[in-house]
Amino acid sequence: MNFYVTTPIYYVNDQPHIGHAYTTVAADVLARYHRMRGRDVYFQTGTDEHGQKVQSAAEERGLDPKGHADMMVENFKTLWTKLDISHDAFIRTTDADHTKVVRELLQRLWDEKQIVKRTYSGWYCTPDERFWMEKDLVEGCCPDCGREVEKIEEDNYFFLMSEYQDRLTEHIQKNPGYILPETRRNEVLGFLKNQPLGDLCISRPKTRLAWGVTLPFDEDFVTYVWFDALLNYYSGAQYLAPAEFKKTNGDLAPWPATHHLIGKDILTTHAVYWSTMLMALEIPLPENIFAHGWWTVEGRKMSKSLGNVVEPAGVAEKYGVDAFRYFLLREVPFGLDGDFSEDALVNRINTELANDLGNLQSRVLKMVAKYCKSEVPEPEETEEEMKALAEGILDALEGHLEVLQFQRALDEIWKLVSFVNKYIDTNAPWALAKDPAKAGRLRTVLYSSTEALRFLALYLHPFMPGSTVKLWRTLGQGEDLREISLDKEARWGRLKPGTGLLDEGPLFPRIDTGKKERERAKFEPKRATEKAIGEMRQKLSGKEGKDMEEKAADNLISIDGLTKVEIKTGKVLKAEAVEGSNKLIRLEVDTGEPRQIVAGIGNAYRPEDLEGKTIVVVTNLKPAKLMGIESQGMLLAATGPDGEPSVLMPDREVPPGSKIK
Ligand code: MSP
Questions:
Q1: For strand 2-11 and strand 259-263, is the pairing parallel, antiparallel, or unpaired?
Q2: Which CATH class is domain 562-647?
Q3: How many angstroms is it from 294 CA to the middle of ligand 1?
Q4: Longest dimension (CA), the chain
Q5: Any atom of ligand 1 within 6 Å of the Cβ of 294
Q6: Quick one: what percent of the chain has pLDDT higher than 70?
Q7: Residue with the nearest Cα to atom 5 of ligand 1?
Q8: What CATH class has 2-292?
Q9: pLDDT tens by residue, 577-610
Q10: N or C, which terminus of the chain has less Cβ within 10 Å?
Q11: Is residue 9 lining ligand 1, measured as CB closer than 6 Å?
Q12: Ligand 1 close to Cβ of residue 20 (< 6 A)
């Protein structure tokens, strides 16, 4: 059976963060699990190296885009090695073989008149590389990122995506597992039902963007970065996957993909653009597109300006690769949003890994050492209940992993951990050891506990490869755990009596939570913000600062100018995201009198985190409507270095409605 899993290909404009690690670890768990079940696995990840974002990042660093990509791609490759990612292929969209496939397929669509040339007029958001219609704009700005848009009229090429609306709807309806989780599936169906699907602009004139794959039928244009990027899943399967796939699974193999794992923000590009592109190309569709949630950090959106970007290599270094991998998949159901904090991570390490699992292992090893000279004893009887539980987990894993419920799979495995811990407590081998008449029972208890540990090493291997290889070794199992067949090994009684056990120390050392100064600064947004402010100040005191002062001198206002503006503190009573907008939040604020404010701060804040906070509001501003909702004032926020807002809040309790003077 063919199992093909992908991650998104990551832009090389930035350093990898927890979001990138999340999808890649999830894909790795699936790949490792299915390999252990004897399936033909192909796991592909890679980098997205064309387009505006990458070109601009290269320019900022004074490098040519390819040289820049060559440098940045190493950050991803090194991280994947560090996180024990077992991908079979790493694709780069600048690979000559990839661009060849992209050009061939573009040519095919052009020949078949699925791509047409049109004059286009619309509003273009350069950073997002997207066109918008006038009606979509929010206060004349991009509804996604809030930045300025540019009116553009130019010739471009369009893929006739609109022709596939009905076919796509039907495909999603007929295949309930095509888009998961179900909420995302409904979202896409709703989108397809409520508006006519437009055609997709798939070109950019080279005068505006040079860094891309040239259209095979017009040298003056490059293709839209997403058209190039999405095709990686298909092109890589053709030129990077081992040839054996084709022999056993047909010509296209390993395509079609079993799972495309993606984040929720790139659902439309996959569910709509990619699916219709494949339909037009008459290439079979993937089996499943799964959109997972996003991580916040200590309750706040992760952003460079807040200085709270979680850098996976640092976390893995500090707490261990496996602990990090475990945390990512255990903390939240795949599909929902999650919150990362060092405390939550430490808590899971100490309770579940060090206590439940680590202690179980060291208890068993110590008792077998003490009572059986570190050799697995011959049991007197089979513990049927434990056997059934241990063997039964295999089917449960299959069921949960089929729908990517990693958390449930771990819960299932943990049932065995808890069972054995309790079993040891109730059977008290230390008491049995005192009574020679109970020697047979003691052997059964120790054999069964050790055998259960062997099952745990097997089942947990996809999640925590390094620690389970160690556990496997301490259980005296010679074979390489990575090569092992779960179907053969997950049978009770395969642990041979007489096997010598090793004690290599704790699997997961406890983290000392007493030490207050756990080098928190790295993850603590507040300190990181202070650092960023410090750096800004330094900049301002230098040359840049002088230039700004000179500019400001032309722009000075008198005190009267300032007194015209009424600014007050306001307590946020309620906050909620504005439906249909990624960025706008509607706030009910008490500024001495109740008022409603709509603010474009959704990129940096979750509504619930604003409730109860005191903010600063301009209260005598003419009301304005944003997405049809009246905003009675404006909250004050600083713009961080990456353009994200940082809302001003007084540093001590002040009553709502206090004047700012
Ligand atoms: N290059 C495109 C994908 C093309 S796939 C054909 C891209 N790259 S990206 O590097 O910007 O983002 C990759 C992934 O990171 C996306 O799936 C996105 O959802 C994910 N994440 C970015 N921030 C995240 C969190 N805070 N939490 C979880 N995942 C997040 O988009």
A1: parallel
A2: mainly beta
A3: 9
A4: 98
A5: yes
A6: 92
A7: 8
A8: alpha beta
A9: 888 777 889 999 888 887 889 998 888 888 988 9
A10: C
A11: yes
A12: yes
Residue 544 has pLDDT above 80, yes or no: no
Residue nearest atom 23 of ligand 1, based on CA coordinates: 19
Q: For ligand 1, is residue 240 a contact (CB within 6 Å)?
A: no
Structure tokens at 14: 């930035």
- Is a pLDDT exceeding 70 seen at residue 539? no
Which residues, at least 6 apart from 605, have a Cβ–Cβ distance to it below 8 Å?
A: 300, 301, 585, 647
Measured by CA distance, the residue closest to atom 27 of ligand 1 is: 294
Closest ligand 1 atom to Cα of 8: 5
Helix-, strand-, coil-residue percentages of the chain, each rounded to 5 = 45, 20, 35
Ligand 1 atom nearest 11 alpha carbon: 10
- Asked whether 22 lines ligand 1 (CB < 6 A), one says yes
Model pLDDT for residues 551-569, shown as the tens digit of each residue: 334 446 566 666 778 899 9
- In this prediction, residues 27-33 reach a mean pLDDT of 98
CB of residue 10 inside a 6 A radius of ligand 1: yes
Kindly report which listed range (317-326, 466-475, 590-599) carries the lowest average pLDDT score.
Answer: 590-599
DSSP class of residue 51 equals S
Quick count: other Cβ atoms within 10 Å of Cβ 402?
Answer: 13
**CB of residue 239 inside a 6 A radius of ligand 1:** no
Pocket of ligand 1 contains residue 295 by CB under 6 Å: yes
d(Cα 43, Cα 88) in Å, to the nearest integer? 5
- All structural domains of the chain with their residue ranges: 2-292, 345-489, 524-556, 562-647
Which helix (H) or strand (E) element contains residue 626?
strand 624-626
Query: 631 pLDDT exceeds 80?
Result: yes
Q: Is the CB of 340 under 6 A from ligand 1?
A: no
